[in-house]
Design goal:
Helices cover 15% and strands 18% of the residues. The protein is an alpha/beta fold and 245 residues long. The chain has a six-stranded mixed β-barrel with strand order 1-5-2-4-3-6. The protein is globular, with a radius of gyration of 19 Å.
């Protein structure tokens, strides 16, 4: 009778070493429209890109997996900066159009994982529920963003957090990011599997590769962020150890 446990371990090992199947990551224009959600990112937390811990003191965001370009750890979006402008909260009844236009320049430091029903589920074959191929998950509340960044009208709607917004985005130089003049907020954490350029642009080739493509991890993997929680131990080795027990 075949040893199914051994077969599983062998399959995992071979899949990690085999050449990566071409991934159909979302290719997006330098400006356009997207959805925006928000999530809590603790100060000093090392997110998927492995950016410097002080980056959390300034506006940062995660990008949806298939546009981010990796299903785990760093991807081509890491370190890029975008100017995000709120347009409307379209899930409310009626849709909410703010009287003020709020914008923020963010640096991408994290991955918003793919899930079939989530806002980060757009693929090359279809957008998310908002009709967009990009979703920015803003780290908020943040010491660098006013508490009033997301407008609301509690007297009309009975709540103040709409959760999801339509936004416009523009790719910008990270020189416009609040953390640009603070060296401790730029770069990567040493000793981690990371890639977080100060100011990546496609023209100079200073963008991160796809960790998934390099490690042979499928684009729809739910392995989570491959942050080196054990400094100095490669994530691939950690995966092999986990599957052996």
């Amino acid at each position: 009778m075949p040893n199914h446990r051994l077969l599983v371990h062998s399959f995992v090992f071979l899949s990690l070493l085999s050449p990566t199947i071409a991934s159909e990551w979302i290719q997006y224009p330098s400006n356009g429209y997207a959805t925006m959600t928000h999530y809590i990112l603790p100060e000093g937390f090392i997110a998927a890109c492995g950016c410097a811990t002080n980056s959390t003191l300034y506006p940062t965001a995660a990008m949806n997996q298939m546009a981010y370009g990796s299903s785990t750890a760093y991807g081509p979006a890491c370190g890029k900066c975008f100017n995000l402008t709120l347009l409307n909260a379209f899930l409310s009844d009626p849709p909410f159009y703010p009287n003020t236009t709020n914008s923020v320049v963010v640096k991408i430091t994290d991955l918003c994982p793919y899930s079939q029903r989530g806002w980060c589920n757009a693929t090359t074959t279809g957008p998310n529920r908002g009709g967009h191929y990009l979703n920015f998950d803003l780290a908020w509340p943040s010491v660098s963003i006013p508490d009033t960044f997301f407008p609301s009208d509690p007297s009309l709607y009975g709540y103040s957090d709409f959760g999801v917004w339509n936004i416009s985005y523009n790719t910008v130089s990270c020189e416009y990011w609040q953390g640009w003049h603070y060296s401790a907020a730029l770069g990567s954490v040493i000793g981690y599997d990371s890639c977080c350029p100060d100011n990546p642009t496609s023209s100079d080739g200073n963008t991160c590769p796809s960790y998934s493509d390099q490690a042979g991890i499928p684009p729809y993997s739910h392995a989570g962020s491959a942050k080196a929680v054990v400094p100095g131990v490669p994530p691939v080795l950690l995966l092999l150890i986990l599957f052996m027990f």
